[in-house]
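For the sake of clarity, the format in which proteins appear in this thesis is described at this point. Each number in the token line that follows is a code from a learned vocabulary of backbone shapes. One such record is shown here in full, so that the layout can be seen directly:
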Amino acid sequence: MITVDFKRLDIQPGYRILDIGCGSGRHTCQAYRCDGVLAVGADLNFDDVMAAKKQLRLHDALGEHGNGHWALSTADVRSLPFKDDFFDLVICSEVLEHIPEDQLAVREIMRVLKPGNTLVVSVPRYLPERICWALSDDYTNANQGHVRIYKKKALSALLESEGAKIWSTRHAHSLHTPYWWLKCLVGPTREDSIPANLYHRFLMWDIMKRPKITRWLEDLLNPLIGKSLVVYSRKNNLG
């Protein structure tokens, strides 16, 4: 699922875009669709990087890109292998909740971002995530080790402490929240739950078809139970 709203971002040809913690590459692929950019996906997990590579090659084969370039790297967000002020846009989606040294991670992200440019961070929203933690002791380990739950104020303070200025926030993916509550009730690693599997099929259908009724419903519910908190910020011009 795409958490970042690319329509909010003024992406120009020639931009270097970093998707740190890219996973299977959903945001890297979306960035690659932008006109004339370099989309860089980076993740600590080598298997995820290979999955992203497969997706990007599929975009190449189908011609679903903006005539730019892509690159991939195995990298630790706490020690990025990129020069200072290298990227025009950095996306960090559903990553910081996994990192014990989250301030160090944000410091590294800000280091490689050009002054005056945009960083988009998303994390699980506090209330839906807290309910998941309450419903299942196994939930955090099943999701590659969630070590904390952020409140909006705390995440904003963290970003601002490293030189970011917040310019917008939103909530996203409210239709995914009941699915994770259901998964927690039946067991987050179970694959034989009929209700959970049916709901997952509905979510996959919704992602592919994006009918107006579910877009309207999700927009209606996002302020209440949106699964993700998305924070848009800009690096201080002083660097």
Notes: The mean pLDDT is 96. The two ends are 32 Å apart (CA to CA). Strands lie at 16-20, 38-43, 69-74, 87-93, 113-124, 164-172, 228-235.
